[in-house]
Fold:
Amino acid sequence: MDVGHEEGESALIREPNRMVAATLSLVKNSKTPVAMTLMQRLTASDVKRLTTDRNVPEALRLSAKKRLSSSKH
Structure:
């Protein structure tokens, strides 16, 4: 019985979720200069939420809207 193996698998599943959450937090932080680059790693639903978030800089919201409109074509 290898209990550590099962715990290791669940940790591997949670790790990408933490990375996405951390990336989203960095993008939403208006003082993060690499927000435009990091936005490329976000899912479409996260980008859609950025378009309506008033706490996000206007330039980032416009970039998010542009990304959504280009992905629909």
